[in-house]
Amino acid sequence: MAEDNRAADRILVLPGGGPLDPELIEYLQGKGQVQVVEDVEEAAHVIGTQSVDLVVCPIQTFRELGEATAGSQAVRILEALDDSACIFDSNGSLLWGNSRVAHLPEEVLGRVTGICRDTFGGLVERGADEAKLRSRRFSVALSSNHFFELTLTPIRDPRSNRTQVAGVIHDATHARRLQQKFDAIDQAGRELVRLDAEQFAKLDVSRRLALLEEKIIRFTKDLMHFDNFAIRLVDRKTNKLELVLCSGLPRHAQELDIYVSTE
User: Fold this and answer.
1) Where do the domains of the chain lie, and which CATH numbers do they carry?
2) pLDDT for 151-162, tens place per residue?
3) pLDDT digits over 55-78, tens only?
């Protein structure tokens, strides 16, 4: 048996199918709290859920235990992700998912199942080579105006020749809506400067300003969804914010004296 000589408070003993050595157990009990488990699965569970300082087991069991605990560590890592992580079979049936998967809209899982089946199901049936079984990325837009980014990676087990699909589902709603707003603002800016030159030239200064003000207010309400707002410019001599235009603000708010400061 392999033994670590360092002091330990909690010691896990895995006999590995062999008989327990009473003298060894007595010796270990003098070093710390001893827990005896029956098999590798139980040992991996203890290591994954409790603090263990020392593991004592037969040399030939180390590799099997290492593989089992690596799986437990992988699950803990996947549970810590901000995204939904899951495993599907090649037909799109969900085999496993971290806790975030339970909070996904049903429509998302339905779409992901279909994408997984349509993308990889036929390739697996035809025995496609590894080059074709590569990661794919997809965008999923829901009717509720929510957006998700999906990455699917097929994983083939060489021992069983079975293919499963690992998936990561990222909620991209905030980023997509922000990008849409930026695009709309950019388009609004283009429309502001795309005024008919001939028509604009026929207007006097006050009408030109009124036309610009009308467009700015409309775009601000439609794109930024602001009903009450003010646009002010800094007077460099006084650092006062001078009111240029506003919408929906009461008179006393328009007449406020506001100054900028470096503090």
Assistant:
1) 10-78 (3.40.50), 82-171 (3.30.450.20), 176-254 (no CATH)
2) 998 887 666 667
3) 888 777 766 777 666 566 666 777
